[in-house]
Amino acid sequence: MTTKLIRPALVLFAALTLITGVLYPLAVTGVAQAAFPAQAAGSLVMRDGKAIGSTLIGQAFSDPKHFWGRPSATSPMAYNAGASGGSNQGPLNPALADAVKGRIEALRAADPGNTAPVPVDLVTASASGLDPHITPAAARYQAARVARVRGVSPDSVEQLIARNTEGVSMGWLGEPRVNVLALNLALDAKN
């Protein structure tokens, strides 16, 4: 009696493994690559045939001549796509307060003349820890530093920010945002 039950169970196990573990993923991948080829390939940004980043995952920029993105809470390194997730530190957590204080000090040290309030997205990580965008306010906060270090006019940097500001999705979803990698590449191409 047990052998009569084992064989159908094994056949069903093998069939479901084939369907859900092989055929379905191949079909979804095929449709994604046909309908959205750039996104299915990771939305990679290529330069001279080499991938230099993705428009979907933030990168660590620390050079004062570049715009800096949101901090990343992933480990063991920043912007680790394999460890997506926030720090889960609440607003009353002293570790979060210390991290924010340190980030504010770093921003102030990089641009001592800037006395404007620091936008919150420059000192707090997103829920994924991988956010490639900052708010237009966060970009404008950094514009004077970037212009000064690059030796260009603040107006030209402001124009680049405006050109690289993405609107709300589908006309109503989300907020305007600036992709940090795209903005930095536009800056590098300009000078």
Kindly describe this structure.
The chain is mainly α. It has a three-stranded antiparallel beta sheet. The mean pLDDT is 93. The longest helix has 34 residues, at 2-35. It is 48% helix and 8% strand. The protein has six helices and five strands.
Question: What are the main properties of this structure?
Answer:
6 helices, three-stranded antiparallel sheet, mainly alpha, 191 residues, 2 domains, 5 strands, two-stranded antiparallel ribbon
What's the short story on this structure?
With 191 residues, the protein is mostly helical.
What share of the residues does DSSP label as strand, in percent?
5-15%
Helices and strands: which structural class?
Answer: mainly alpha
The helix fraction, in percent, is 40-55%
Low-confidence stretches: none
Identify the strand order in the major beta sheet. Answer: 3-5-4
Please indicate the count of domains. Answer: 2
User: How would the global form be characterised?
Assistant: elongated
Question: Helices, strands, pairings?
Answer:
Blueprint: H1 2-35, H2 37-40, E1 44-47, E2 50-54, H3 94-110, E3 133-134, H4 136-150, H5 154-163, E4 165-166, E5 177-179, H6 180-190
Antiparallel strand pairs: 1-2, 3-5, 4-5
